[in-house]
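Table S2 (continued). Query chain:
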Amino acid sequence: MTDMSEMVEKARELAKKHHDGEVRASGETLYQHLDKVYQKLADAGVQDEKVLASALLHHLPRSLTQALETIRNSIDPEVAKLIELYHNLAQKDIKQESPKNFNHNYIVQTYMNLAEDMRVLVIALANQCHNIETALTLPQEKRRAVAEKTLFI
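Corresponding output:
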């Protein structure tokens, strides 16, 4: 698949099919969030079609049991792998345990070690960037968690 728009369009259709009705605490649909993450990457000059398609599909494993197989078969095996790695990274709870033991370099190195493919960190950064933009709609405790995670990414 060499046409970037074809791969991205297929990813867009799949994301819309599975996420358009899901509503986030901010009031936007999950699909709108995915599109904004995609747009952040595109606006930043990312041209890697697999990263852009992954941005649109990075929440699919939470909603669809056979998500990775579906992505592998209908979009691209490498996109499925990026989403699998993103999902694995997103499940890690890396945070400051106590102020006296906190080390920014440790957090950065931990994320870099966890990400087998650095493109996953690019997707995670764009996702977290949009999450912090909408954090004001969340209850205070969730806002704090989003802000803390944003600091570490």
